[in-house]
Amino acid sequence: MPVSATLAANDTIAHRRANGLPVVPLGFGEAGLPVHPLLTAALADAAGSAGYGPVAGIPALLEAAAGYWSRRGVPTEASQVVAGPGSKPLLWAILGARGGGVALPKPSWVSYAAQAAMQGLDTIRIRSVGGVPDPSELDAVARGLKLSTVVVTLPDNPTGRLAPPSVIRDLCAVAERHDLLIVSDEIYRDLTSADFLSPASVSPDRVVVTSGLSKNLALGGWRLGVARFADPHLRSRVVDFASEVWSAPSRPVQHAAAVAFAEPPALVERVAQSRNLHLRVASAVASLFGTPPPDGAFYLYPHVPGFATDRDVAAHLLSRNGVVVLPGSSFGDDPSACMIRVATSQLYGDTDEQKEQALRSDNPAELPWIVAQLELIRNALA
After folding, report:
1. Of 93, 101, 200, 254, which residue has the fewest beta carbons closer than 10 angstroms?
2. pLDDT tens, position by position, 9-59
3. CA–CA distance, 318 with 158 (Å, rounded to integer)
4. Regarding beta strands 225-228 and 207-212, do their DSSP bridges make them parallel or antiparallel, or are they unpaired?
């Protein structure tokens, strides 16, 4: 099993910088923003909480996460929530606890297929509609294959698109017809202004929702994720996995996460600023590629003609221009399609001061240090 393509891209960026080579970091999907002082204070206050705590998470965090989903039209009790050291290990545990064949969007985030393989599960990729396997194709496939789970990403990584409500309703109808569990990865939910419908609002009894704080509040390194379960048996199985693998999430981080999921006004404002920054800068980069702006998150998925494979595109941009992108084949796409995944969230500045200014700006793509990065991209494409 090779290292995750997204993390390998981060290593490439660090290596080039350490060697004084030019780099335009469009490969790694990290939110790239400073931590809000309210959260650093909460973490410091809880630094003395050194005990393991409950496997599923401390009560304050489970209550806060339940409130987060309930405010978004998905009524949730604390007893339905499990916290883990990031949504990534939770997804791995969910796939293992559920078992059976897994349907994935094509393309889809690099770790879904890898995690299913690590669990010994068969996967099939189905053409994506905004992070959702096309419901009609899923219906046809499910008639001939023994599937157990379908994974969706809303909004999507790598494409930046968001499936419309009509597609979500069709997906839920197919899942009902074939008794499929829907795992809805909604880590980017707060970073879209488009019309969002969670499958959990349509089929609440057969959906697991995962989320976290790595994208909306840029806390990826704190490693904290949450999952909402409708099936208590599946939740119990995931807690069993957790007890043997990670024991419990970091307790100080859980206390800070409880503050975050309670959504005090200062953090609501920070998320709104982040959403504006991500979408405006991604839209500016999209215009350079001649592709539509994303519906959410900070990803683009353009086609680059004139090359034999997507890896040729990525290699050319890196060697000739220092531009780091990922080939679409890393996400399960066909290499000959020459699609690349572009992540724009590392363009906001080299210092926290620049990033804070970008957050406060109504037009961050006009700030001089961001304009300079956009010009490098323009020249690379030319």
Report:
1. 101
2. 667 767 767 777 678 999 988 999 999 999 999 999 999 999 999 999 999
3. 19
4. antiparallel
**Buried b vs exposed e over 253-264: b needs ≥16 C-beta within 10 Å?**
bbbbbbbbbeee
pLDDT by residue (tens digit) across 95-125? 999 999 999 999 999 999 999 999 999 999 9
Q: What is the DSSP string of 208-249?
A: EEEEESTTTS--GGG--EEEE-S-HHHHHHHHHHHHHHTSS-
Chain position carrying tokens 């997804």: 91
Residue 211 in tokens:
């989320």
Sheet hosting strand 340-343, strand order edge to edge: 299-300, 340-343, 326-327
- What is the per-residue pLDDT across 353-379, written as a single tens digit (0 to 9) for each? 999 999 999 999 999 999 999 999 999
Measure Cα distances from 272 to 70, 182, 284 in Å. Answer: 19, 28, 18
Q: Mind giving me the DSSP string for 133-200? A: B-HHHHHHHHHHS-EEEEEEESS-TTT-----HHHHHHHHHHHHHHTPEEEEE-TTGGGB-S----HH
Q: Which residues pair with 226 in a beta bridge?
A: 83, 211
**What residues contact 235, with CB distance under 8 A and at least 6 apart?**
80, 82, 229
Phi, psi of 40 (to 5 degrees): -65, -35
Taking the complete model, does pTM exceed 0.90, yes or no? yes
Q: What is the pLDDT of residue 3?
A: 52
Q: Can you tell me the distance from the alpha carbon of 370 to that of 368, in angstroms, rounded to the nearest whole number? A: 5
